[in-house]
Amino acid sequence: MYWMTYRQHRTQLLVSAALLAVIGAVLLINGLLASGAADPRESFKAIYVYLSWLPVAPIAVGVFWGTPLLAAEFERGTHRLAWTQSVSRARWLAVKLGTLGLAVAVAGGVFGLMVQAWIDGYPTVRAADRFGDIALFSMTGVAAPAWWLFGFAVGTAAGALLRRTLPAIAVTIVIFVLVMVGLFRLREDYAEPVEVRIDHQSEVPHGMIVGTLLDAEDNTVGLRVQPADRYWRFQWTEAGILLAAAALLTGATAVAVRRRP
Amino acid sequence: MTDLPVLEATGLGKRYRRKWALRDCSLALPKGRVAALVGPNGAGKTTLLHLAVGLLSPSEGTVRSTGATAFLAQDKPLYRGFTVAETLKFGRLLNPTWDDAYAHDRVAALGLPLDAKAGTLSGGQQAQVALTLGLAKRPDLLVLDEPLANLDPLARHEVMRGLMEAVAETGLTVLLSSHVMSDLRDTCDWLVVLNGGRVQVSGDIDELIAGHRLLTGPAEDADALARRVEVVDRSGSRRQVSLLARTGPIPLGPQWTERPVDLEELVLAYLRRPDAASLPRPTLATA
Question: Does B279 touch chain A (CB under 8 A)?
Answer without folding.
Answer: no
